Structure formats: C-alpha cells, structure tokens
Amino acid sequence: MDSIPHEMDSSATSENAASLNTPLHTTATNTLLSVSSSSSSSSSPSSSTSSRYENQKRRDWNTFGQYLKNHRPPLTLSRCSGAHVLEFLRYLDQFGKTKVHTPICPFYGHPNPPAPCPCPLRQAWGSLDALIGRLRAAFEENGGKPEANPFGARAVRLYLREVRDLQSKARGISYEKKKRKRPPQQQQIPLLPPAPGAS
Q: Which stretches does UniProt call biased (Polar residues) (predicted)?
C-alpha cells in the first residue's frame, strides 16, 4: 500500500492558513494517509483512532477544496461532478508509491519482483478507496445532499473497481474481501430424559 508522508498540525486554523499558501502537490502529498499505517495501531484506544480518522478526513477535504480552487477554470463544490473526482484521483497518481506493472513487463503478475523495472508508480487501490470513503462522508457532513454526492457517483465506483482489478492482476495480489469469522457457537447439550425410577 502507499505510504504518503503526512504531518499532523496542532490547530485547524494554522492548517487552513497553510493550505491556502501551499501548492496543491505539496498539500496532496501531506494529506493522504496510508491505509496500512492507519490500521497498524489497532491496540490504541478507539477514541484516538476515531480522532485520527476525523483529522485525516478534514485534511482530505481541505486538499480537495484546494484542488477545486486551483482547477482551471476554478470549480465550486456545487458544480463538481464524478468526472472532476476522477480527474482528482488521476492527479493523485503522480504521488503514488505502489509499483503497478504493465502487461508487457516481465514481472507482470508477480507480487515480489526480483529486480527493478521501469513500470509506473501509482496510488494503491486501498488508499484511493479509503480516500473516497472519507471524502464521501465529509461532503455530507459539510451540507451536501447524499443524492448529489460526486464521491458516490457511479463513474467513481466503476473507476475504483477498475483500478482494483488492474492492480490485482498487475501485482499478483488478490483483493478479495476477507470473510468474517463467526464467533464460535456454544454447543447445546441435549437434555436427556430422567432415567426411569430416578426422582
């Protein structure tokens, strides 16, 4: 999975002020968080995990807002569509750290290639999927109507599925959903009828 460096600011106001004066490519690299690093500390209390999620969601939302401002012509959120979200995701690929082999590469389909190759670096599917989930939630939390949510557009879902399938084949990694383990059922001991003559 991608591991994009990030820094947590102590206050939202300094973060917002900094994002207005920061080029978008710097903001993008500082805001996306690897799915693997966010899930690696599962032993921490759930309150800090939810706080980390909220902080990441806010940073992602600010980054997308900066992207809309820098867009030519500038876009308002109300005019943003699924096509603009796809454009944003493709823009983020330049900051990816996941090697995605092309079909002509000799290492296509190998999870651990033995040598370097010139194949491009991309955002990992898991990182993009988590990012879209956070932005989808942030859109509605910031007053957007669920039916008008560009992050939930069919085109975005299809794009994520396409990226998942392409990366799965190119990297030789299965992205099948993990089956949830069911809790062990307690065996019920059948009640035996009382032995004859016992009372």
A: 10-33
